[in-house]
Backbone:
């Protein structure tokens, strides 16, 4: 399944649920509006690709591919085709449960803000999984059981670019990383690890994102006037 197929399925689902007063609000993660808001933008979930570099210092394949993906989106005005695995679909389906479990464990109430644009950098933004109190955010993963158990045993250090990127976009001070797997015994189902804002890392991330977007802009401008 790709993102264009998801848009078509989401529209049909929203139309059906609207008959019963159900469904997601416009702009909420997974809706057609949300997918279109992200088109051509460098987003928090992909900051790791912007930061990627080969051992020899040259551009990594993941960075190049993402750069071309944004170019495609800007020229077509449509989300790029992306493969969505059954594991990704499972994770998305259980995100709401993970959020409620986090609220039960911490006593905090989580607000879902939808897609947020960076306050000063054009074509940059992200979809935080939740805002907590005045200073916090959460980032939720509902991964495979294998990955969840690895996280329980070793902690979470794989999503620094994403969590720090969301703190950069929102201006907030801390992020709770949440891993959730309801298939396990109850005491093993949820993992919560707090990450404080790292302004040194954020400064590096900002530099990399600005440079990356400048490259996308240059390619876009060149092709707009191509003859």
Residues:
């Amino acid at each position: 399944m790709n993102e264009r197929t998801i848009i078509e399925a989401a529209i049909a689902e929203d139309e059906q649920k609207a008959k019963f007063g159900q469904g997601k609000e416009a702009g909420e993660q997974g809706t057609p509006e949300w997918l279109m808001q992200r088109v051509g933008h460098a987003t928090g979930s992909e900051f790791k690709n912007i930061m990627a570099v080969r051992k020899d210092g040259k551009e990594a394949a993941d960075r190049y591919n993402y750069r071309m993906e944004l170019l495609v989106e800007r020229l077509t005005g449509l989300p790029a085709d992306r493969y969505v695995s059954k594991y990704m679909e499972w994770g998305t389906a259980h995100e709401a449960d993970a959020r409620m479990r986090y609220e039960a464990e911490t006593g905090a109430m989580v607000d879902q803000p939808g897609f947020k644009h960076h306050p000063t950098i054009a074509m940059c933004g992200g979809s935080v999984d939740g805002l907590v109190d005045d200073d916090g955010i959460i980032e939720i993963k509902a991964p495979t059981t294998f990955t969840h158990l690895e996280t329980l045993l070793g902690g979470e250090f794989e999503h620094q670019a994403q969590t720090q990127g969301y703190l950069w976009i929102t201006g907030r001070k801390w992020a709770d990383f949440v891993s959730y797997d309801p298939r396990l015994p109850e005491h093993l189902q949820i993992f919560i690890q707090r990450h404080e804002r790292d302004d040194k890392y954020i400064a590096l991330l900002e530099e990399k994102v600005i440079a990356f977007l400048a490259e996308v802009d240059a390619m876009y401008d060149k092709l707009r006037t191509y003859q």
Remarks:
- Residues 38-224 form a domain with the Lambda Exonuclease; Chain A fold (CATH 3.90.320.10).
- The radius of gyration is 18 Å.
